[in-house]
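Running this now, will post back.
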Amino acid sequence: MRTIHRLSVRQIGAVKLPDDRNNMMLADGGNLLLQITRGASGDLNRSWIFRYETDGKRHDLGLGRYQDRTLAEARDKARELRQKLIDGGDPAAERAQASADRAAERAAHARAITFKECAVRCIEAHADSWRNAEHARQWQTTLEQYVYPIIGNLPVSEIDVALIVKVIEPIWKEIPETASRVRGRIEKVLGWATVRGFRSGDNPARWRGHLEELFANKARLAPVKHHAALPYAEIPALVAKLRERDRSADHALEFTILTAARAGEVLGATWVEIDTTAKTWTIPASRMKAGREHKVPLSDRAIALLGKPAQGRLFDVGENALRFVLRGALADDGKPLRELTGGGMTVHGLRSSFRDWCSERTSYPEAVCEQALAHTIGSKTERAYNRTDLFDKRRRLMAEWATFCGKPQASGKVVALR
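Update: finished.
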């Protein structure tokens, strides 16, 4: 009887397990065995085993599935391992050491990966779940401004409470709302890094039962400061100044005023959302703060500001451009109005100007005015029964607003508040 090469390809293909058994070993000789097991579905699985003994202990070393390693290849591998045994080696110990070396290499790489690298990958991983690109931009901006200069280039595995405090403490009292968001974003990045195996242990940026013991409650530090708003009576003068300059950024800001929309909604708008025939702008739910589609009626002037239909965004400008345009338009003899009044006027504050105008100069119901601003109205139960968007009334409201904004001015100069 042969001591090695006992099996044949035909024999392996034809082998069957008795009904009362779920596994079986067939010996090819020379330490090589074919293991046959019955799977949960009843299919037979075949794999190679190299069996040997060292110091009285048996070792079964897997050599892969029969589908991946043929009989001839398995015999070649068994011959190689027998030679190692002859030379005094231990194949199982060598494999374990190789596995340990790979694990150590991965651990060293994990220790070397920086917080910034993890943050970038964390943002990429979650970007699809965020409502709009503005969210990702805010993440990136706050991390670059407050976090990366301090811990961005440090190994993420070394980030501890002391470093978190070093980031948060300088801004906690001055800008508590931003500081709170920064802390939450650091916590998110560190949580992602832990799950990915780049660090271990507790999250040093967590708030409850941890950092809340080190910092004062942000709600008690300072009252919420709302966006500074230009008095609605000065809106026509502002619009007149924008029309004098007639640039793309001026058009974008005037369009923002006429639609009472958020700056991010305007800057992210594309021609696909515009229906010039119906004079409507449909903002998809993915770009709305409330996560619901919002249809905006467009006045004739708003349509005119768009120009001819094209591809891509309506206005190829950024948020900073809108701020600079507003600041320049609100200048009085070269001095910005924000300096004269002691409070900076903001693009977002123009929505408040519109809302004040609605309350003081029109008789439209509150629901119509709030719908124009895409605000959530009433409780969840009330919204379930009141599903209308009051679009026809909103169209009349926005037409009146456009008329007010465009009324002739004696002077294009905005009068500073004293």
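The chain has 17 helices and nine strands. More later if anyone needs it.
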